[in-house]
């Protein structure tokens, strides 16, 4: 029955020994780093960048600059279309769970779950549905664009499987949009830094809004460009400075690797900022990454999702979604 949707969760440590599983999205941030001849060097460089950035952001939390160590787990969620969780599930999404290890006391401090969001249905929406809609000559996106993804995401976050493992809802942190202009505000946070705003929400902003997530934009202390944070509740009060530092150090590192024109630029964003991937004044990080390959793989992956999930289970998914409000 459609009402029997359940979820199972497994975690994989993201360290220099990480190898993507067969169920991992081939375009996800961490899988990209762990492929090819330079996989070990890529992973070591990225993990060192994350730790060094965390040390900078957490320098006021301890007399010892290197007291805390960032530990990352990949959270993989499978969707079970009936009540039998022992049967193989359908890969739904992957996120990162950040934990902070106090190397002095041995205590593990909870960080933030979410960070990136690698979603198979989102691949389908942006790589299959949206291009098909654009090809029809109709501007914008379909009126129900992202509805199924949003309902599955909310159902997962509210599920016993998620709540038994994670005390707080996910916070997603990604790049700002290259099609929007951002203006600096007066808000300043010890970790998140200065806040920016923009009044014309992007398609991604609206997509995440359907998922129940609001957005704020901050350029963290020591950064050169703002990041977009999608969250429930109160971003500034619900999470400790250490937890926020874990998310910033992790996701800023990925963005410096994947979008160096923006996040590894030679000059920082000003009062008014329009990010651009055409910016030539930036530095490479030394991590091998093929952005064009990732774009091609995203389309391939979207088609795979269409063939193996959306098409065969369309009637069941539609029946389930019809009974759930956004």
UniProtKB/TrEMBL annotation:
<dbReference type="Pfam" id="PF08908">
    <property type="entry name" value="MesX"/>
</dbReference>
<dbReference type="InterPro" id="IPR015004">
    <property type="entry name" value="MesX"/>
</dbReference>
<protein>
    <submittedName>
        <fullName>DUF1852 family protein</fullName>
    </submittedName>
</protein>
